[in-house]
UniProtKB/TrEMBL annotation:
Residues the entry annotates as binding NADPH: 11, 30, 47, 103, 136, 251, 275, 277
GO annotation, biological process: carbohydrate metabolic process; glycerol-3-phosphate biosynthetic process; glycerol-3-phosphate catabolic process; glycerophospholipid metabolic process; phospholipid biosynthetic process
Sorted UniProt keywords: Cytoplasm, Lipid biosynthesis, Lipid metabolism, NAD, NADP, Nucleotide-binding, Oxidoreductase, Phospholipid biosynthesis, Phospholipid metabolism
EC assignment: 1.1.1.94
Name of the coding gene: gpsA
Species in which this protein is naturally found: Sulfuricella denitrificans (strain DSM 22764 / NBRC 105220 / skB26)
Protein's UniProt name: Glycerol-3-phosphate dehydrogenase [NAD(P)+]
């Protein structure tokens, strides 16, 4: 299969490296300097340094070249750039199936990626979301990882999961696009909270409590939006939440850790050099939750720290001082 991987950040590059073992992979970057560097050095020095590209992996600067005769477009840009890339594909008349790997709500509209696709390509497009517990560095190193490919078209999810599947990158299928997308987006907000708690030195017990209550928040919102309860106990729910809240490779967790050390959000984001989707999704998640009467106290606390200048310690204290109630 020819796969056009659109977006050459950490995750697009890692997926390209992994998939190139079995497929013809064309990794697209919009950045001419990055194109030249990746073509000459056969590695992505800026986003995934030290991981060599397989010989078969091709690099593209022209989107139409990447998409030419592709059997699949795998879009791996941050959620903020997703609509633009899908629109560019539509303008080029690209008709191949589309899978996206971004984890977030679109800032300003609170839309999930599948809603963006429906708006840009119509609701007949053959498409799905790829998500699950997966640090780019580990996938690029060939360490075992399990993902889920969700599509409302169950047979597409099944067939595409089989195509992408390999022993080191296991891909399961699911019909629950909403559940998979909500799990992937909201766990980033919870990871910021876990980072804050750990950074404040509140300990493992507090972190376990945050993860568990965070999972309850994710499930409440996800079910209210039409997701299936069981999805939140799977790879893209509990699995990704645990990874991102506990793994120090997480950019979202890092944001929380550094906020707890007293760094400003602007400084943290400038130094991170990668997207931390939780920062962009948090407000949208809270807005959606409020509009649907879903209680999300951890998300609310994260928003207060990120956008209202509340000291991280005070936000955690406020969570701890909530009225006790039945679990
Ligand atoms: N890094 C991971 O471990 C990981 C794992 C799973 C999912 N994800 C998700 O994948 C998405 C991308 O994350 P990442 O880690 O690759 O981000 P990153 O910050 O490492 O890189 C983002 C890349 O996207 C490019 N980009 C941004 N807007 C674009 C646009 N409009 N058109 C073309 N290119 C554009 C940037 O130039 C950059 O190369 C995020 O939603 C993230 O949550 C990341
Ligand atoms: O580094 P993060 O926090 O963006 O998380 C990366 C992946 O989403 C983990 O599954």
């Amino acid at each position: 299969m020819k796969i056009a991987v659109l977006g050459a950040g950490a995750w697009g590059t890692a997926l390209a490296i992994s998939l190139a073992a079995r497929h013809e992979v064309h990794l697209w970057t919009r950045n001419p300097a990055q194109f030249t560097e990746m073509s000459e050095e056969r590695t992505n020095r800026r986003y995934l340094p030290g991981l060599p590209f397989p010989d078969a992996q091709q690099i593209e600067l022209k989107l139409e070249q990447a998409l030419d005769q592709a059997d699949l477009a795998l879009v791996v840009v941050p959620t903020a750039g997703f609509r633009q890339v899908v629109r560019q594909m539509a303008e080029l008349g690209a008709k191949m199936p589309l899978v996206w790997a971004c984890k977030g709500f679109e800032a300003g509209t609170a839309k999930l990626p599948h809603q963006v696709v429906a708006e840009e390509l119509g609701d007949k497009a053959q498409c799905g979301a790829l998500s699950g517990p997966s640090f780019a560095l580990e996938v690029a190193r060939g360490l075992p990882t399990a993902l889920t490919l969700a599509s409302r078209d169950e047979s597409f999810a099944h067939v595409m999961a089989l195509e992408l599947h390999s022993p080191r990158l296991r891909v399961y299928s699911s019909p629950d696009v909403v559940g998979v997308e909500v799990g992937g987006a909201v766990k980033n907000v919870m990871a910021i909270a876990a980072g804050i708690s750990d950074g404040m030195g509140y300990g493992y017990n507090a972190r376990a409590a945050l993860i568990t209550r965070g999972l309850a928040e994710i499930g409440r919102l996800g079910v209210a939006m039409g997701g299936r309860p069981e999805t939140f106990m799977g790879l893209t729910g509990a699995g990704d939440l645990i990874l991102t809240c506990t793994g120090d490779l997480s950019r979202n967790r890092t944001v929380g850790l550094r906020l707890a050390q007293g760094q400003t959000l602007d400084t943290i984001l400038a130094e991170l050099g990668h997207i931390a989707e939780g920062v962009h999704s948090a407000r949208e998640v809270l807005r959606l939750a409020e509009s649907m009467n879903v209680e999300m106290p951890i998300t609310q606390a994260v928003c207060q720290v990120l956008f209202e200048g509340m000291p991280p310690g005070k936000a955690v204290e406020a969570l701890l001082n909530r009225e006790p109630k039945a679990e």
